[in-house]
From TrEMBL:
Domain RNA polymerase sigma factor 70 region 4 type: 170-203
PANTHER family from the UniProt entry: RNA POLYMERASE SIGMA-H FACTOR, SIGMA FACTOR F FLAGELLAR
One Pfam family per UniProt: Sigma70_r4_2
Phosphoprotein recorded as keyword: no
UniProt-recorded name of the protein: RNA polymerase factor sigma-70
Domain RNA polymerase sigma-70 region stretches: 36-105
One GO MF term: sigma factor activity
Entry-linked InterPro entries: RNA_pol_sigma-70_dom (IPR014284), RNA_pol_sigma-H (IPR014218), RNA_pol_sigma-H_factor (IPR016371), RNA_pol_sigma70_r2 (IPR007627), RNA_pol_sigma70_r4_t2 (IPR013249), RNA_pol_sigma_r2 (IPR013325), RNA_pol_sigma_r3/r4-like (IPR013324)
Listed GO biological process terms: DNA-templated transcription initiation
Keywords, ordered alphabetically: DNA-binding, Sigma factor, Transcription, Transcription regulation
Length: 203
């Protein structure tokens, strides 16, 4: 059993396993909690970038991911789970997806959906994308099955019907991770024109 670090006593968290640090955080160590949040915040941001919700700011999705991280710290049980990172990843993903599903139901807008085309599902080094998830070529865990092939086709089809040619191209490039400047150069448009097109899409 791990002892909780006392106040004013330096603890080298870098040399500790995450599972032990989580135990400290669960027992009231603010330093341990802050360490875990700082350690995993880039991981949360990378995962948040894998999702796109029309009408929502990317920071909103990141915030949901941070809530998932906090829940992982709160609920982790070392005697039942071997890896905190794997558990945190699951909690972060569930929190983001739940928030997006809730937003979609509340707004009743088919386009207000999570669409990640070519971005990694997990961290930036991952080679799994939403297209892989939809096709089922690399994913067998139901928790990772975000939307079905049919739902994705419906979303894509409705987008193409509603959006102008420019708006569609801008959206696809934006989801592909390109900057406004890169999209402007690619489409031979001014950056302001790209920004306006994306704002119309988000509305």
């Amino acid at each position: 059993m791990t002892a909780t670090p006392q106040r004013n006593v330096y603890v080298d968290y870098d040399s500790m396993m995450d599972e032990d640090i989580v135990e400290f955080a669960r027992e009231g160590s603010t330093e341990a909690l802050e360490y875990l949040i700082n350690k995993y915040k880039n991981f949360v941001r990378a995962k948040a970038r894998s999702y796109f919700l029309i009408g929502a700011d990317r920071d909103d999705i990141t915030q949901e991911g941070m809530i998932g991280l906090y829940k992982a710290i709160r609920d982790f049980r070392a005697d039942k789970l071997s890896s905190f990172r794997a558990f945190a990843e699951l909690c972060i993903t569930r929190q983001i997806i739940t928030a997006i599903k809730t937003a979609t139901r509340q707004k009743h807008i088919p386009l207000n959906s999570y669409v990640s085309l070519n971005k990694p599902i997990y961290d930036d080094d991952s080679d799994r994308t939403l297209l892989d998830v939809i096709s089922g070529s690399k994913v067998t865990d139901p928790e990772e099955l975000i939307i079905s092939r049919e739902e994705f086709g419906d979303i894509e089809g409705k987008m193409e019907e509603i959006l102008s040619d420019l708006e569609w191209k801008v959206l696809m490039s934006y989801l592909d991770g390109k900057s406004y400047h890169e999209i402007a150069v690619e489409l031979h448009r001014h950056v302001k024109s790209i920004d306006n097109a994306l704002q119309r899409v988000k509305r």
